[in-house]
């Protein structure tokens, strides 16, 4: 009996279970057994996992998270990491492995592929910043969560005439902040791809205040940095990604704006009452049930990955291009980041006033 492995690595993401089910179902249809490693590359290194049958995965596409668990373990940072993955695969008789993850997890899959192991990548991240695919699953759910929360903030911001700064996930790119902000009528969206100085942001908020607008709502991606200012260095994770959790971009911006307006002597006395607040959406964006888009995209990507394995076509990534599920270049996908382009940001900027 042919057998393949599967794992989910990196930050969890709504839609992972749909992919797992898609892989298991399409493999079962081709007479291939699937073995799931627990908690990403950690399970492959430590040889922990379980066989997955269609019965085990029935209906799991409705659930967020991942039934296999996830971790940010980097095989390349563990002594003999690649050899241990290889030996776990051999022990279970796995001819190949479906790795579901973002640039870090797929970067490891790509390195193992270069070392001769059979890999198939499935692109995953709520950040939507992987290239070679039009969308990554998980992004739609996360952006919808962010949109709903920003929607809700309008009334409380208006009631108290406050300035709100809402921080969305996105350490390298601003896909969630931009799409959620645009959809939920944020007055300004700040993303890493298009840095602005504090002065520019201040002038924007001050302009609204002077015009008599009751409140201002700003969506900011966690990786945003002010032009001409270097963000605090908080170290990096096992994959070299900056640790942003405590950088508190929204907190800082909200505090600076309140301070600056209150101290601005060119404004009337009422400025002393100006208040700002911040909200960090954080992991709320990653939790909960996937949207219909993410369930269906995940399922289709999983089915395609299983079909590639059945055909013995290893070494690629599955991807969404237009409405089609296609194979894409794994090497390119992990080396090129998909950023918000100028045309999109400028179009969205027409709504910022
Ligand atoms: O998976 C991507 C992501 O959600 C980023 O948007 C965020 O910066 C990071 O993961 C948070 O990671 P962790 O869950 O390890 O704090």
Q: Main sheet?
A: 5 strands, mixed
CATH architectural category of the largest domain = 3-Layer(aba) Sandwich
The strands making up the biggest β-sheet line up spatially as 3-2-1-4-5
Judging from the principal axes of the Cα atoms, what is the shape?
elongated
The CATH topology annotation of the largest domain reads as Rossmann fold
User: Any idea what the radius of gyration is?
Assistant: 22 Å
Total count of domains: 2
Identify the notable features of this structure and list them briefly:
alpha/beta, Rossmann fold, 2 domains, 5-stranded mixed sheet
What does this 3D model show about the protein?
The protein is built from 12 helices and 11 strands. It has helices at residues 16-29, 41-46, 54-57, 81-91, 103-114, 139-159, 175-183, 198-211, 249-263, 292-310, 330-335, 342-349, and strands at 2-8, 32-37, 49-52, 96-101, 119-123, 162-168, 188-190, 216-221, 275-280, 317-321, 324-328. Strand 1 (2-8), helix 1 (16-29) and strand 2 form a beta-alpha-beta unit. The strands form 3 sheets. It has a 5-stranded mixed sheet with strand order 3-2-1-4-5, sandwiched between helices. It folds into 2 domains: 3-138 and 290-335, Rossmann fold; 141-286, Phosphofructokinase domain (Rossmann fold, 3-Layer(aba) Sandwich), CATH 3.40.50.460. The longest helix is centred in the middle third of the chain and has 21 residues, at 139-159. It has 353 residues and is α/β, with parallel strands linked by helices. The protein is elongated. The site of 6-O-phosphono-beta-D-fructofuranose has 13 residues, from loops. 6-O-phosphono-beta-D-fructofuranose is lined by residues 10-11, 102, 125-127, 169-171, 222, 244-245, 286.
């Amino acid at each position: 009996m042919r057998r393949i492995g599967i794992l989910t690595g990196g930050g969890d993401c709504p839609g992972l279970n749909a992919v797992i089910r898609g892989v298991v179902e399409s493999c079962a249809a081709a007479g291939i057994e699937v073995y799931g490693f627990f908690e990403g590359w950690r399970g492959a290194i430590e040889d922990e996992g379980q066989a997955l049958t269609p019965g085990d995965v029935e209906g799991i596409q409705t659930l967020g998270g991942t039934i296999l668990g996830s971790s940010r373990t980097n095989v390349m940072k563990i002594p003999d990491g690649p050899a241990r993955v290889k030996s776990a695969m051999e022990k279970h008789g796995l001819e190949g492995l479906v790795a579901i993850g973002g640039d870090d997890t797929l970067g490891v899959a790509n390195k193992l592929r270069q070392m001769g192991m059979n890999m198939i990548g499935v692109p995953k991240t709520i950040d939507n910043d992987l290239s070679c695919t039009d969308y990554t699953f998980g992004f739609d759910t996360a952006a919808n969560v962010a949109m709903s929360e920003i929607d809700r903030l309008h009334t409380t911001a208006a009631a108290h005439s406050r300035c709100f700064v809402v921080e969305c996930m996105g350490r390298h790119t601003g896909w969630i902040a931009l799409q959620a902000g645009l959809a939920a009528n944020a007055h300004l969206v700040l993303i890493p791809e298009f840095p602005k100085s504090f002065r520019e942001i201040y002038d924007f908020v001050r302009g609204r205040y002077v015009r008599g607008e009751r409140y201002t709502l700003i969506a900011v991606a966690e990786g945003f940095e002010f032009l001409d200012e270097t963000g605090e260095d908080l170290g990096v994770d096992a994959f070299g990604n900056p640790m942003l959790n405590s950088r508190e971009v929204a907190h800082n911006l909200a505090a600076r704006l309140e301070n600056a307006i209150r101290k601005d002597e060119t404004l009337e006395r009422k400025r002393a009452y100006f208040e700002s607040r911040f909200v960090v959406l954080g992991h709320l964006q990653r939790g909960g049930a996937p949207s219909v888009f993410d369930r269906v995209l995940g399922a289709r990507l999983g089915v395609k990955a299983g079909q590639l394995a059945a055909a013995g076509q290893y070494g690629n990534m599955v991807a969404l291009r237009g409405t089609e599920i296609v194979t894409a270049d794994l090497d390119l996908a992990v080396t090129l980041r998909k950023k918000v382009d100028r045309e999109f940001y400028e179009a969205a900027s027409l709504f910022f006033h």
